[in-house]
Amino acid sequence: MSKLKGNFISGLFLFLLTTVVCLLSAFQFISMHKKEAIYPSKWLSTKKMLSSYFPELKDTPGDTEVFLYQGQEEGGNILILGGTHPNEPAGFVTAVLLIENIRVTRGKLIIIPRANNSGFTHNDPQEGNPQRFFLETSGGRREFRYGSRLTNPVHQWPDPALYINPAGQKISGIETRNLNRCFPGKNKGYLTEKIAFGIMELIKKEKIDLGIDLHEAAPEYPVINAIVFHDNSAELAALSQMELQLEGFEFRLEASPPNLRGLSHREWGDEAHIQAVLLETANASHGRLKGKPSPSLIVDGKDKNYTKAARLGLLFVPYGEEGIPLKQRVARHLASISALLASLNELDPKKRIEIDNVPSPLQVQENGIGFFLTPLKRS
Ligand SMILES: [Zn+2]
């Protein structure tokens, strides 16, 4: 065989190999655009899109589903966000559990499970994170995407070197794609700023009284197992912390620093004058000390490195051999939401909200999340 022919064959082989790798990656990448199903309880009043509050979002990857539960009697109006950061699954899964189970008899509850819808369509490069995790239900395994903290660069690009966010703070350019730095949003801005603007419009139009933004953070992050509260919600947060303590859940109270701008609860309080809190649980798959990322690390939350780090006193939460499973993190979010609503009722009875069928935090811990999820429906 001549040298020229040999070069041609190896060149062709490399070309075909590259094409196959590119195609496989492209299919994997595109598959993350497929939304996981959410099956609302029969008591759902209406499902809308965020674009119905801010039409500029229509037909963009930032548009997202809004689930409304309206009680027969007037009362408090509450907004719950999951998926502000799509790599913090406890917030998203808590929102899904509520949507699939609850009935509101008094007041109004609005839930946005995928606040940054675009962030669910990719995951962070070089982190080696799985694209999905799985939860068993009585009718089969349901899958959920494990996304990124940031808006997909395919939907918003390029990032500037520095970013002056809509609240006027100068921060790193990459934060233009972090929904939790883009409040109160802009009607003519980056996609992520438009999402934040849409949420602000919803807050005003639906006359929201209290906003709750569900998050997770690495176990080595100091603000963890915490209720982070806007200055106007100090009493509400303190009362909720006491309620939680009585139920056996330890939470720390963190006052939101007034000079850290662009965060959901900070701008909801400052701009829309509603009460606002952000909740954090500890997620090992989010942290820097973790071993190999995997779907089971997300769900079971067991990681030897974190157990060792806890023994060395490097963490801000207890972290034993049993880890911190997703069911425990979701239970904490559910318990905090119930405590916040009970405290709101106590402080301002006119804003009373009554919700039936909320999955009990203790039962979620005992029976698992899948016990409360609708069994898989094949379409
Ligand atoms: Zn977060």
Structure characterization notes:
The chain is an alpha/beta fold and 379 residues long. It has a single domain (32-371), classed as Zn peptidases (Aminopeptidase, 3-Layer(aba) Sandwich), CATH 3.40.630. Helix content is 32%, strand content 20%. It has helices spanning 3-31, 89-101, 191-205, 234-246, 264-272, 295-300, 304-311, 326-347, 361-367; strands at residues 46-49, 65-70, 73-81, 103-112, 132-137, 140-145, 162-164, 170-172, 210-217, 226-229, 252-255, 275-282, 354-356. Strands 1, 2, 3, 4, 9, 10, 11, 12 and 13 form a nine-stranded mixed beta sheet that branches. The longest helix is centred in the first third of the chain and has 29 residues, at 3-31. It is globular, with a radius of gyration of 22 Å. The chain binds zinc ion (ZN). Zinc ion is lined by residues 85, 88, 180, 215.
SSE layout and pairings?
Blueprint: H1 3-31, E1 46-49, E2 65-70, E3 73-81, H2 89-101, E4 103-112, E5 132-137, E6 140-145, E7 162-164, E8 170-172, H3 191-205, E9 210-217, E10 226-229, H4 234-246, E11 252-255, H5 264-272, E12 275-282, H6 295-300, H7 304-311, H8 326-347, E13 354-356, H9 361-367
Parallel strand pairs: 3-4, 3-9, 9-12, 10-11
Antiparallel strand pairs: 1-2, 2-4, 4-13, 5-6, 7-8, 10-12
Helix pairs in contact: 2-8, 4-8, 8-9
The protein binds zinc ion (ZN).
